[in-house]
Amino acid sequence: MTNISWKGVMPAVTTKFTQDDKLDLEMFSLNINAQLEAGVHGIILGGTLGEASTLEDEEKKVLVQHTVELVDGKVPVVMNIAEQSTRQAVKAAALAQEQGASGLMMLPPMRYKSTDHETVEYFKAVAESTSLPIMIYNNPVDYKIEVTLDMFDELLKYENIQAVKESTRDITNIIRIQNRFGNRLNILCGVDTLAMESMVMGADGWVAGLVCAFPRETVAIYELVKAGRIEEAAKIYSWFMPLLELDISPQLVQNIKLAEVATGIGTEQVRLPRLPLHGKERQRVLAIIEEGVKTRPEIPNF
User: Which of 19, 40, 95, 252 has a CA positioned 20 to 30 A from the CA of residue 277?
Assistant: First the structure.
């Protein structure tokens, strides 16, 4: 089994498209290189931000292989699994492993609201089928299925289930997980607007969204918190908050891609049925991004 250190800032990266709706690997590479230069600790492909539900298998393959080559062993490449059937999830895990991914992030079954027992069996089937380390994505707010501590009790019998992307929006859940499982389960915050609080409470890292446009600031917050330099981290976090709120929106992909344009490491192209923002909402989001870019803080040495 390959091991991953489930710690630090792991960007859930956007997928870049050309104007004729093909993968834009040139712009994608530019962004990944900016993430690596800023010191991120992993790259997560094919999440919600990566527009995974619109990607074809061949495109996922290209993205995984290209990213693995690009990062060249510097950080782990994690592939997200969001499938409708257990069979498809097992197949997706096998493909990700074959293509060189070093870990998996896993959502519960899509579309079908599975029971606790069904959800556990789903995760177990994938864990049994692969030697890749797995981070369970626990987001009952958006996906209506909660992975409870009792369910984790059952799942942690599998050595390769190692981390949770904690998106319950309940900070106290971090304490509960730590009290129950100690260091057995690494915790990464999955909600941009709760990231600093989560890390102060002992979360191991941050699966981040706005990092796609602002990698240096995101990594700085993590590193400063871990060094106990809370005031300095809070200063950057306060500046960041209006931008981070762009992540907790159904249009998070469009919002974050607009931010990537503003910082020169992305384009606005999204895949249908998504459309770029327009009208008043576009003006509102652009105003937040422009203000953020204009007032970018000095990053202290860490």
Answer: 40
> For residue 5, which of 93, 71, 103 has the smallest C-alpha distance?
103
> Would you call the peptide bond into 109 cis, given omega within 30 degrees of 0 as the criterion?
no
CB 300 within 8 A of CB 232: yes
- For residues 176-186, b (16+ Cβ closer than 10 Å) or e, as one string? ebbeebeeebb
Q: For the segment 155-213, what is each residue's pLDDT rounded down to a tens digit?
A: 999 999 999 999 999 999 999 999 999 999 999 999 999 999 999 999 999 999 999 99
Give CA separation, 87 vs 90, 109, 140, 172, in Å.
5, 11, 23, 35
Contact by Cβ (8 Å): 221, 203:
no
- CB of 43 closer than 8 Å to CB of 50: no
Domain residues of the chain, as ranges? 8-230
Give 74-89 pLDDT, tens digit per residue: 999 999 999 999 999 9
Q: Which two tokens stand for residue 107?
A: 């959502």
| Rounded CA separation 173/203 (Å) | 10
Q: Say how many CA atoms lie within 13 Å of 159 toward its Cβ.
A: 7
Considering only CA atoms, give the Rg of the chain.
18
C-alpha span between 185 and 177 (Å, rounded): 8
Specify the DSSP element, H or E, that contains 81.
strand 77-81
For residue 164, how far is the Cα from the chain centroid?
Answer: 11
**How many Å apart are CA 9 and CA 208, to the nearest integer?**
7
CATH fold for domain 8-230? TIM Barrel (3.20.20)
